[in-house]
Write a structure and sequence with these properties.
Structural class: alpha/beta
Bound molecules: S-adenosylmethionine
Oligomer: single chain
Radius of gyration: 18 Å
Protein name: Methyltransferase type 11 domain-containing protein
Distance between the termini: 46 Å
CATH class of one domain: Alpha Beta
CATH topology of one domain: Rossmann fold
Keywords: Methyltransferase, Transferase
GO molecular function, one term: tRNA (5-carboxymethyluridine(34)-5-O)-methyltransferase activity
Shape: globular
Organism: Rotaria sordida
Order of helices and strands: HHEEHEEHEEEHEEEHEE
Number of helices: 6
InterPro entries: AlkB_tRNA_MeTrf/Diox, Methyltransf_11, SAM-dependent_MTases_sf
Largest sheet: 7 strands, mixed
CATH architecture of one domain: 3-Layer(aba) Sandwich
Strand order of the largest sheet: 3-2-1-4-5-12-11
CATH superfamily of one domain: Vaccinia Virus protein VP39
Number of strands: 12
Length: 254
């Protein structure tokens, strides 16, 4: 629930979107930074493969780098990270990673700067399509022509070709499914480890003593492609589903 304990609804304005993300993304990641970081140590193999595709000396930005779990995959490329959470950035700095505070919709770096960008599990925290487009435009802007980005987001579809994702199969619970009140556009609270009922929802993070809710927009198949189609200078190289996540690799063309 919001601090005023009114039910949360989908944003109807830019201000609503900023407030929802501030309360249910940025504030939450700061509160859970250490707890979250302790659960995030295993790099995803296909992200590692992508990072390994760059030549020695490449300059790569990890947008929404979290605790920096991809920052030291290679010691022959230059990785820089940025994130909105001061709590997670502190963890990165304690590990001697090069990071800076930034929103992914407005990254304070020059145009055409990076050989590569990764943005892993970040865009699903942005609450309107216009803002998700802004974030992708920003990634394209900062890439060099010929540079490539890998963007991954949580998928609404957690079962592909009759194979359920690890998220659904691991520790499956039989909790009640929350349904949306169509008349009020209220955001539902997602029951963890179950199929998503709606693309926009609040996902509980169980801390030892209390529950906090993170806002998610889970993406449907081809939704990332649909948004990228609005941006010139983009050539899609590959798109795939990786265990409950939609992933896309694209190149900035001159
Ligand atoms: C699920 S975590 C993923 C962290 C990391 N990329 C990983 O793969 O472990 C989402 C991250 O996105 C960051 N984030 C959310 N909204 C953001 C925004 N608007 N700008 C920058 N970072 C953001 C959060 O602070 C958090 O670190």
């Amino acid at each position: 629930m919001s601090s005023s304990s009114r039910p949360l609804t989908l944003p109807k304005s830019e201000l609503d979107a900023c407030q929802l993300e501030q309360e249910h993304v940025h504030k939450v990641y700061n509160e859970i930074a250490h707890n979250f970081s302790n659960t995030r140590y295993k790099p995803w193999p296909r992200v590692v493969d992508f990072l390994c595709s760059f030549s020695n000396g490449s300059l790569i930005l990890d947008v929404g780098c979290g605790n920096g779990k991809y920052m030291n995959i290679r010691n022959d490329i230059m990785m820089i990270g940025c994130d909105r959470s001061e709590g997670l950035l502190k963890i990165c700095r304690d590990r001697y990673f090069e990071v800076f505070l930034s929103d992914c919709m407005n990254i304070p770096v020059p145009t055409n700067m990076f050989d590569g960008v990764i943005c892993i599990a970040v865009l699903h925290h942005i609450s309107t399509e216009a803002r998700r487009l802004l974030a992708l435009k920003e990634i394209v802007r900062i890439l060099k022509p010929g540079g490539q980005a890998l963007v991954t987001v949580w998928a609404k579809e957690q079962e592909i070709d009759n194979k359920k994702s690890t998220y659904i199969t691991k520790n499956a619970k039989t909790c009640p499914i929350h349904t949306k009140n169509e008349t009020t556009n209220e955001l539902i609270i997602h029951t963890p480890r179950t199929e998503f009922q709606q693309p926009d929802c609040l996902v509980p993070w169980a801390k030892p003593t209390e529950k906090v809710l993170r806002y998610y927009h889970v993406f449907i198949k081809n939704e990332l492609e649909h948004i990228l189609n609005h941006i010139s200078q983009v050539k899609i190289i590959n798109s795939y589903n990786d265990d409950g996540n939609w992933c896309i690799i694209f190149m900035k063309i001159a």
